[in-house]
Amino acid sequence: xxxxxxxxxxxxxxxxxxxxxxxxxxxxxxxxxxxxxxxxxxxxxxxxxxxxxxxxxxxxxxxxxxxxxxxxxxxxxxxxxxxxxxxxxxxxxxxxxxxxxxxxxxxxxxxxxxxxxxxxxxxxxxxxxxxxxxxxxxxxxxxxxxxxxxxxxxxxxxxxxxxxxxxxxxxxxxxxxxxxxxxxxxxxxxxxxxxxxxxxxxxxxxxxxxxxxxxxxxxxxxxxxxxxxxxxxxxxxxxxxxxxxxxxxxxxxxxxxxxxxxxxxxxxxxxxxxxxxxxxxxxxxxxxxxxxxxxxxxxxxxxxxxxxxxxxxxxxxxxxxxxxxxxxxxxxxxxxxxxxxxxxxxxxxxx
Length: 351
Fold this sequence. Notes:
Strands 3-2-1-4-5-7-6 form a seven-stranded mixed beta sheet, sandwiched between helices. It starts with 14 loop residues before the first helix and ends with a helix. By secondary structure, the chain is an alpha/beta fold. It contains 15 helices and seven strands. It has helices at 15-22, 39-48, 61-70, 88-94, 111-114, 141-147, 150-161, 166-176, 182-192, 204-215, 217-229, 245-258, 291-296, 318-324, 338-350; strands at residues 29-32, 53-58, 78-82, 100-106, 232-242, 279-281, 304-310. It has two domains: 15-106 and 218-314, 3-Layer(aba) Sandwich (Rossmann fold), CATH 3.40.50; 118-215, Orthogonal Bundle (DNA polymerase, domain 1), CATH 1.10.150.
């Protein structure tokens, strides 16, 4: 299949590792929860041909527009939805897109958002303090900067930015309010901590904190991870690429917990939690970009990939077995897996 030659240039991070971790197969059904420019989506569609299908989700309407142009050659195999992945189950139910073979979250900002100075994500160019992923959201970064108390600002910057100078920065912001533009905020931050200290720009962590707060990124991630597991068929893969420690910690803890049967506190005499493992870790150690990729694409340097596979759970009814094996009637377009279904039935009958 020929690629759309007019598609914008974009370098997806850890693309080969992502395809391998998802175990992409021909005829598979996949969800890209953070579509962006469509780089990972294009790779998934190419690898899943013939017969593959992809549901692409992004809160940013501009991302949907750009990705739809890039993926034009696959228009019969894609469904692109402008919505937040926090609503993942409702989206899949609405479009009857479950269960699936794989779900991908590529977290963080896309180059599309960073390059648009009207969005206020970058402190390198003058722009309004917006930072909303979707224009439908109500609260902007300017609202937080200019309406929060000094203590609230310090908490946000410390918790979401892991910034050691959070109090000094919050104090400096309150002193200089109102602040409406990115460059003014960056200057206030730099002055508050006494100039640059090291290679990283002093505004980096505060801008990260504001973006996370505006878009409720960590809460949405925690919620979506739990929901994603229930959308995976037996053997389906969950793959997450994160770019800072807060995201990675959530993903790591979630996958570790869901790969264990008992999650009772250490020292509990007998299990009382009743928890059953729903995932198997695909890679015990986190996957990071190679030196070659980092040199070719510097934005990949902080990326961390974690993957897990959905395993059999407690419900062993015939209906649950059928659902786990991707057998949603004839309209599933050939995705039925009779060999897998028979193998799973043998496992259940043996137990």
